[in-house]
Structure formats: C-alpha cells, structure tokens
Amino acid sequence: MRSEIINEVLTVEDRAQKIINDANTISREMLIEAQSKANALVKDSLKTVRDLHKIELSKAEEEAARLLEETESNLDSSIELNDKRLDDIADRIVSLVSKTNLFGEA
C-alpha cells in the first residue's frame, strides 16, 4: 500500500513537472511569436512612415521647382521691363537732344 501511495505521489509529481515544462515551452513560444509580430508591426509602421515622407518630399520638391520656375520667370520679366524701360529712356534722350539747339545755333 505504501509503495502504491509513493508511486502515485511520484506519478503526480511527474505530471506536475511535465505541466511546468509544457507551460515553460508554451510561454517561450508565445513570447517568440509576440516578438515576431511586434517586429513585423514596427517594420510595417516604419515602411508606412517612410512612404509618407517620400510623398511629402516629392511634393516639396515639386513646389520648390514650381517656385524656382516662377521666380526665374519673374526675373526674366523684370529684365525685359528694364530693357524696355531703358529703350524708352534712350528714345526720349535722343528726342530731347535732337530738339535742342546746338551751342552757337540761334
């Protein structure tokens, strides 16, 4: 009878140890799975953020190119206006000089 009780106690202890070992194995597997999912989530989030930043950068580059083109166009216009203005001034000077009596003319 004693040996039966001892055998039963040892059997229960063996089952308890197996449960502990199984629990440790399962918890390690769950932890590894959770870490893998977290790594995948972080990787996906980083990719999404990078893609958004690429889009924003592209928009900013397009806007900068547009502003540069607009500024160059404005500069060209102002140069043209200045050239036109200089021509008008030169024409007026020539006109005034042509109308002016030379020194000694009456």
How would you summarize the topology of this molecule?
Blueprint: H1 2-99
Beta-strand proportion: under 5%
Average pLDDT confidence is 87
**Separation of termini?**
156 Å
N to C succession of SSEs: H
Let me know the number of strands.
Answer: 0
**Rg value:** 45 Å
Alpha-beta classification: mainly alpha
Helix content: over 70%
Low-confidence stretches: none
Global outline = rod-shaped
**Sheet with most strands:** none
Number of helices: 1
Count of folded domains: 1
Describe the structure.
There is one protein chain. By secondary structure, the protein is an all-alpha fold. The protein has one domain. Helix content is 92%, strand content 0%. It is built from one helix and no strands. The protein has one helix at 2-99. The mean pLDDT is 87.
Provide a brief overview of the structure:
The protein is built from one helix and no strands.
